Amino acid sequence: MLVLGVETSCDDTAAAVLLSGRKVLANLVSSQDRIHGPYGGVVPELASRQHIRHVLPIVDAALERAGVALQDLDGIAVTRGPGLVGSLLVGLSVVKGISFRWGIPYVGVNHLEAHLVAIFLEREVPFPYIALLASGGHTLLCLVKGFGDYLYLGGTKDDAAGEAYDKVAKMMGMGYPGGRVIDEMARSGNPKAIRFPRSRMKRGRYDFSFSGLKTAVWHYLKTYGDGQPGITKADVAASFQEAVVDMLIAPTLRAARDLGVGRIVLAGGVAANSRLRGRLGNKAEEEGIETHFPAPAFCTDNAAMIALCGHYWLTQGRRDDYRLNADADLTL
Ligand code: KG4
Ligand code: ZN
Fold first, then answer.
1. Cα(264) to centroid(ligand 2), Å
2. Strand partners, 141
3. Ligand 1 atom with least separation from CA of 162
4. What is the pLDDT of residues 71-122, one digit of tens each?
5. How far, in Å, are 66, 268, 284, 332 from residue 327 at the CA level?
6. Mind listing the pLDDT tens digit for each residue in 246-274?
7. Which ligand 1 atom minimizes the distance to the CA of 244?
8. Using the 8-state DSSP alphabet, how is residue 126 labeled?
């Protein structure tokens, strides 16, 4: 089965072609970072307009890269939510048009679900596993029992982990999106230089909270500028990152222990973080728990994971009709 995937839920316009549910023939992303960078965050109206400009060229480019024609496709998968409604509508409308014109079946895909199973683009992981999805819009912990079978364990009560990275990077004048720049800068910093607070949720063993940490960094920067004497900007970045990583790791390992699940899979943009991968990998190994980290290109938003998820639903016989609407608040 040959499936085209289209993703336009936020600020990346992406298209991919997937063969037999696993082999990525093309996976292209047109990033809007330069457009939103000056604002320090995504501007929804600008995002929709950019998607309109880029979606058809990127679909064409993905088909060309894969060496296939539209008529060769057996199905199309498109993100239908959650995300920015204007952005979602662009991808969904284009896919409905292609589906109607060429008579190719299509399915709307849940973006969160696609992140949770993105690891299958690279390897088969036995079920069940604990999945930590940490991105710019979401931070949640799930028990993945099988394709389409997810148990929500907990999530953030305020900011998403990636959002905390982006906001702290903005406060530190480091550009947007902040995750990758902080990750890189933190490599030369001391993660123990400043002890930022780690929030612990009184209720909700698997919940997260990042707004207190963000405020603590804000107070620190207001008090000391880029650092106290002897403390560099890289130390501030590394210390902030260490707190985020601690707060992500604790509930994840707790869930694996409590549920007796010996496998953890990371997903979402923050899963590309080198410190998170390193520390979680080591801690889990000490406890005899396996970890699986997708390649960074499959952690951040991409259309290959949408095609993978769509492939599964298409093979289950699901077909969506032209009344399907975008759902900005779609849950798992
Ligand atoms: O999954 P994603 O591409 O989009 C959403 O669905 O939100 O995630 C984007 C988020 C941004 O907040 C970005 O700062 C963060 O992922 N991110 C990182 C890294 N690379 C991207 N955060 C920490 N370390 C990274 N290396
Ligand atoms: Zn995402």
1. 18
2. 132, 154
3. 12
4. 999 999 999 999 999 999 999 999 999 999 999 999 999 999 999 999 999 9
5. 30, 19, 36, 12
6. 999 999 999 999 999 999 999 999 999 99
7. 23
8. P
For residues 253 and 270, give the distance between their C-alpha atoms in angstroms, rounded to a whole number.
17
In 3D space, the residue among 126, 153, 122 whose CA is nearest the CA of residue 253 turns out to be 153
Q: Are residues 146 and 57 in the same domain?
A: no
State both tokens at 191.
Answer: 């993660």
Structure tokens at 213: 């940490």
- d(CA 100, ligand 1 centre) in Å: 34
Number of structural domains the chain divides into: 2
**Is 78 in the same domain as 178?**
no
In angstroms, the Cα distances linking 313 to 69, 76, 100, 195, 303 are 22, 11, 19, 46, 15
- Nearest ligand, CA 112: 2
72 is written with which tokens?
Answer: 């060769």
Residue 60 sits in a domain of what CATH number? Answer: 3.30.420.40
Terminal-residue alpha carbon distance, the chain: 25
272 lines ligand 1 (CB under 6 A): yes
SS3 label, residue 202? coil
